[in-house]
Amino acid sequence: MALAHGSIELSGFATLTGTPKQVGDQLDRLVAEQVIALTLEHGSGPAVRALAETVASIAPLVRTILERRQRETIQSIIEALVPQVPPPQHMLVEARMTADARRAVLESGDWLTAAQIAEVAGFSTTNPSAQPNKWKKDGLIFAVRHRGIDYFPGYALDPGTGYRPIKTLAKVLKVFGEKKDDWGLAYWFASVNSFLGGMRPQDMLADQPERVVAAAEDELAGALHG
Prior knowledge:
Layout: H1 20-28, H2 45-81, H3 89-108, E1 111-112, H4 114-121, H5 130-137, E2 144-146, E3 149-153, E4 157-158, E5 164-165, H6 167-176, H7 182-190, H8 201-204, H9 209-224
Helix pairs in contact: 3-7, 6-9
């Protein structure tokens, strides 16, 4: 919705400085619809001129700010007047299914926060998320985000190496690439897999990692061929 033309009109800015008499003389010769007076009990000439220049440079921004606020106010009124439309039933069903799936994933395995990993791995607790986040950035591990917190899969950490990521996990993540997001990876690891004889990938990652990689390759090949 456009604003009414001229609803906020500010233009032709100029500043006058001097004593009250000097400014009065200038006003007598000035052609203007409106005048704003700023008085100072004390002030040197250079300081007063600097203040006047500052006011003159800021003044044009006032219109922009007022118009933006007016648009925001109008938009708020429109949103308040438009009734809320409930989401379609199929979206509610999908949301419920997604919530149930995520709950099942979180309850199916051991998930650790960065602080918990730092504690078991002996990392610095001053910045506990630094190392786990670096692993994630380097493609060595993944994490699901739940209520603003990253949770890393405990089954992907090797106690024998000081709770560092199992090296083969990086191969699995590379196989899937961008085909699966973090939650998609979590679903896959937590689901029974026919290629693995009905076992879950997360249960075989530590003992039979290459089979898990092969299962990921099979999953991707099946997806690419429909």
